[in-house]
Structures are given as C-alpha cells and as structure tokens.
C-alpha cells in the first residue's frame, strides 16, 4: 500500500540512494535533498572526502542491490566492474600467514565507489516519483505536536530559504549529520555515543594494472597485533585500474609522498611492494584519517518524534578499512522498507520502532569492526559484554583461519553479512578455533 504523501531523504550519497529507492515503493513522491551539487557522471563530490578511496560492496549489499535494481549487475560489468569471488580471486595474508585460495561463490562487484554511486544515482533519478535536488542545505526540523512535518532548507542556487514539508523524513546525511543538534532545537535529548578509535589512517593511489596481470584480483595484507600495525590492499577497479591502499593503526599513518608511500609498502610486505613498484601510477596519493567507529544511541532515547528516521553513518559509522558502510546502509534501507510494508499504510510509531531495532541491524558489522580494533586497545574500551567477549574470541578466529578452511569460509560469510555472527560460535567452528588456539599456545617450561 502506498502512502498518499511525500517522503524526504536528507543526503544523496549511497545511504540516501538506497533509501530513496525503497521509499519510492511506499510514497507517492520522494525528494532527496543533497547539500552538494549532484554530478551527472563518475565524478567526486566535495562533501564526500573519502569517495576516491577503496569502497567494497559486501555480498549482502550486492544481493540487496540486485533486488532493488534488476539488471544493475550487468550494467556494472558493462561499465568495467569486475565480478569476483572473495576467496578464489583474493591473495590474502592474515596474522602473518598466506591464506589458501578456493572457490567460495561469495561474490561481489569490484569497482570504484564513484562508478557505483553514479550508476545508482542514474537509476534512482529515473524513477518517476523520485526527485534529486542538489545544492539543498538542510538547516533543521519543523515539528507539530511531536511529529516532524518538514525541514528548513537553504538553497545554494539563490532561491529563498524555506520549508519543505513531508509525512516522513529520513536522515541519511552521513558522519557529518547534524541530527543531535536538530533534536535539541526541537526540545528532544541528543543521544549518547559510543566511540572506539584505534587512530587508523590510510593513503591511496591508483595504478594501471601491469601487463601481464597477476592471477589475483585483490591482494590483502592484514595487521598482526600487537606489533605489526600496517596493512595494505590492492583492489581491482573498472577499466584496468588498481586502487592501492596503505593503512596504519595507532597513528602509524602512511606517508602521502611517493618515496614514503613505497617505503611504507615495502616495510609492510615485500610481495605487496613488488606488485606495485613497476606499475604506472595514474593519480596523486590521497590520505584519510576520520576512521573511528561511532554509534549514536538513538534507540535509548525515551522520546522520539514521529515521522523521523535516521540510518547509515548518521547513526553508526564504522572504521572504513573494514568495508562495511555501504552494505549496512543498504540493509537498513531494506529493513525500513519491510517495516513500512507491514504498517498497512499507518506511519504512526514506525519511526521509533525502526530506531529501536537499529542496533540489531548493525550489530554483526559493529562486533566485527570493534573487536578487531579493540585488540589493539587491550579490550579496555569495550562497553558491553558482547564487545568484551568478541574482543577475546575474534582474534582466536583470525588466528585459526589460515589452517582451517571451514573457519575461513564461515568468517568470510559473516564478514559479508550473509551469515549471522552466531555462525562463528557454532560448535563445529568454536571447537576448531579453540583447538587451534590451544595447539599454538607456547608450552611453558617446567619450574
């Protein structure tokens, strides 16, 4: 059942595009308000400083994308994207050991975020009841008797500032969301926040894939706690391009000059350095350091205005090195669509029910990201029993992966959000993990 009303989405990045597509099935009109001018092609935007870096759409995100946009997989491949098996086509070194490569049928589309976003934006813009409005800076919320009925907008094209009204409003404006301030302005509390920051920074550069190309599409070098704090990723994008990313934890930031960038790569892993040293660079080196895990606990607020939803990085932003953000925002948008379908045309209470449920949507990704980061922080910043337990158990899972293929495949399924995190605690997995942990534990000499 379609609501005879308008919905507004704040933010035109990926979270906003997923959301607009879902809302188009439930509202007569959907308006996306984006502060940047929206490009027509594969172009970066000032409001998304990290959009030139590696972005990975996990398999769960790819599944949702194919459901929402039939035929888009072929469209991406035609535009140069690579359809890759995440264990067969990846050369990966984890915890100091190279992983075996095998066919898992865990598939994603490897391409730049700019290409993916441009194709999604074109698809959404083509929907007859969706309007994409660039240059629209949302300034705050307009409410009436506990319901959000609109947003105040400042237009960059010189139009008079005004109010855009709607029956349902979604904040998908990302990490820079002003929603906590807007809630205070209308008499509500701002949320508590959980922040886990391992002080990771990364730098990236694009290269032409050399000829002959290697047998793998992706090379991943993981960190090795507690001493090896450097990681790297070579990621095949569209049209014969590698995006090469170097990362360092605990403020061991990779340099952004050429000599320093290559020296960092060589110190991290000689084979990684050898892969890129003779490749031709086609871009500058760009850095990024806003990488903390941040959860805004809107679900804990006793009072929540009706008609307002927040999702994506506006609620929960992950350390981007784990590549979860695009997929989790797609999952959140899909869940919102399910709740609207079950509402039988009644919007009352949907917003608060969705916010209450949000931690369950993001929990698997949150536990994976934070347990990896908490290992570097001595588990001292864990704020819940699940976080503390995951911080103790997950390093043991990672240690077992190189030697236990079933643990490896299950971990990749959980990492790609196609299996629940509980799969890693199933008896057949936990037994192998703990067996490996006991076998690898150094034997203490007798006194």
Sketch the major β-sheet: 7 strands, mixed
CATH architecture of the largest domain: 3-Layer(bba) Sandwich
The CATH topology name of the largest domain reads: FAD/NAD(P)-binding domain
Report the structural category.
Answer: alpha/beta
Gyration radius (Cα, Å) is: 22 Å
Q: What is the assigned CATH homologous superfamily of the largest domain?
A: FAD/NAD(P)-binding domain
Fold topology:
Layout: E1 3-10, H1 14-23, E2 27-33, H2 59-68, H3 72-78, E3 82-85, E4 90-94, E5 97-98, E6 107-110, H4 113-125, E7 130-133, E8 136-144, E9 147-155, E10 162-165, E11 168-171, H5 179-185, E12 193-196, E13 201-208, E14 218-221, E15 230-237, E16 241-248, H6 258-268, H7 270-277, E17 286-288, E18 293-296, E19 308-310, E20 316-317, H8 325-342, H9 350-376, H10 385-400, H11 405-415, H12 427-440
Parallel strand pairs: 1-2, 1-11, 2-7, 4-14, 11-19
Antiparallel strand pairs: 3-6, 4-5, 8-9, 9-10, 12-18, 13-16, 13-17, 14-15, 15-16, 18-20
């Amino acid at each position: 059942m379609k609501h005879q009303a308008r919905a507004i989405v704040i933010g035109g990045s990926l979270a906003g595009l997923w959301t607009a597509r879902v809302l188009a099935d439930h509202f007569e009109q959907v308006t996306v308000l984006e502060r940047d001018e929206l490009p027509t092609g594969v172009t970066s935007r000032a409001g998304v400083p990290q959009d030139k870096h590696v972005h990975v759409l996990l398999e769960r995100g790819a599944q949702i994308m194919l459901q929402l946009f039939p035929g888009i997989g072929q469209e991406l491949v035609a535009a140069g994207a690579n359809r890759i098996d995440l264990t067969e086509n990846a050369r990966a070194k984890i915890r100091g050991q190279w992983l075996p490569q095998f066919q898992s049928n865990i598939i994603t589309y490897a391409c730049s975020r700019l290409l993916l976003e441009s194709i999604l934006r074109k698809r959404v813009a083509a929907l007859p009841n969706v309007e994409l409005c660039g240059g629209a800076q949302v300034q705050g919320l307009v409410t009436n008797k506990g319901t959000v009925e609109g947003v105040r907008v400042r237009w960059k094209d010189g139009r008079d500032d005004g109010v855009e009204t709607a029956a349902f409003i979604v904040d998908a404006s990302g990490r820079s969301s002003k929603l906590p301030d807007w809630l205070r302005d209308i008499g509500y509390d701002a949320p508590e926040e959980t922040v886990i920051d391992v002080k990771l920074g990364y730098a990236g550069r694009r290269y032409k894939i050399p000829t002959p190309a290697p047998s793998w599409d992706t090379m991943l070098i993981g960190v090795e706690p507690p001493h090896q704090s450097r990681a790297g990723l070579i990621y095949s994008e569209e049209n014969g391009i590698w995006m090469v990313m170097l990362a360092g934890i605990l403020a061991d930031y990779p340099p952004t000059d050429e000599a320093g960038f290559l020296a960092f790569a060589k110190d991290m892993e000689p084979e990684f350095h050898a892969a890129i040293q003779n490749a031709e660079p086609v871009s500058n080196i760009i850095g990024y350091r806003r990488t903390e895990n941040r959860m805004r606990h809107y679900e804990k607020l006793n009072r929540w205005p009706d008609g307002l939803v927040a999702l994506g990085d506006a609620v929960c932003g992950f350390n981007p090195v784990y590549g979860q953000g695009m997929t989790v925002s797609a999952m959140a948008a899909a869940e919102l669509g399910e709740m609207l379908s079950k509402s039988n045309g009644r919007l009352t209470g949907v917003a608060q029910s969705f916010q209450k449920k949000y931690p369950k949507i993001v929990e698997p990704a949150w536990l994976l990201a934070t347990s990896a980061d908490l290992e570097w922080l001595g588990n001292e910043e864990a704020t819940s029993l699940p976080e503390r337990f995951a911080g103790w158990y997950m390093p043991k899972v990672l240690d077992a992966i190189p030697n236990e293929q079933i643990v490896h495949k299950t971990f990749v399924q959980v990492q790609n959000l196609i299996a629940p995190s509980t799969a890693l605690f199933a008896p057949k997995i936990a037994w192998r993990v703990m067996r490996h942990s006991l076998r690898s534990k150094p034997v203490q000499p007798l006194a």
